């Protein structure tokens, strides 16, 4: 038909990454020696996730380059960070979000050299003994039978850090507090999407949330940590400027409260706007 619109097929990720402009950008960040390894890792990630293959090539590249600049391995098996498909219904396209995991956050915190110890864990039924609101101190009694502990229901989440200067801070949220937080900050969870990462692995999302809350409020953040926090759950444009797509911003703590994670290379976060 004369008026039929011809839709151009999307350029393959391998072809895009080896184009002159994209490859120059890659070499500027990772160096010429590691450029091919970087390209291969990105192509492999896209090939294992059909929904990621539907995302714009530039958003995939920007997310991958940010992870590289933070010196975090781009590997679903290691699980330091991921790029996750997001359907932007306003633009009518899918884009890849940069999302750091709780493992990546721990890595950046320890790498900063400011933390003597940092830990986050689910708390099981019967383990929370007391809370002193005056001293802001918690008392726990851990279940030491690991098999029994694994079978117990999770009632909350606990995180603490001790810095080299002696500062120690801790935080506990109940399961109900965490669920309320997830509903507020994730449209996909709030609207009951089966693809919501909060649904697929609530505990890992919750642990990431605890780290973000505690470090963001009381900890010292390196430049790397600040970059990771402000870019988390964002689609990055060609200039690596973050565009937030699946959260309700809570000013002035936007960098603290932008929550997301992904557990494996096939997980997706496609919220209902």
Task: Please tell me about this protein's structure.
- The protein is an alpha+beta fold and 273 residues long.
- The chain has a domain at 102-222.
- It is 39% helix and 21% strand.
- The chain has twelve helices and nine strands.
- It has helices spanning 13-17, 20-30, 35-47, 57-69, 102-111, 146-151, 175-185, 187-190, 197-200, 202-218, 223-231, 254-257, and strands at 81-88, 93-100, 115-124, 128-132, 137-140, 154-163, 168-174, 234-236, 242-244.
- The strands form three sheets. A four-stranded antiparallel β-sheet has the order 1-2-8-9. It has a three-stranded antiparallel β-sheet with strand order 3-6-7.
- A hairpin with a 5-residue loop joins strand 8 (234-236) and strand 9.
- The longest helix has 17 residues, at 202-218.
- The protein is globular.
Low-confidence stretches: 1-8, 248-273
Strand-residue proportion: 15-25%
Work out the number of β strands. 9
* Distance between the amino and carboxyl termini: 35 Å
- C-alpha Rg, in Å? 20 Å
Which outline best applies? globular
Structural class: alpha+beta
Number of helices: 12
The whole-number mean of residue pLDDT values reads 81
Q: Helical proportion?
A: 25-40%
With strands numbered from the N-terminus, the spatial order across the biggest sheet is 1-2-8-9
Succession of helices and strands: HHHHEEHEEEHEEHHHHHEEH
Q: Biggest sheet: strands, sense, closure? A: 4 strands, antiparallel
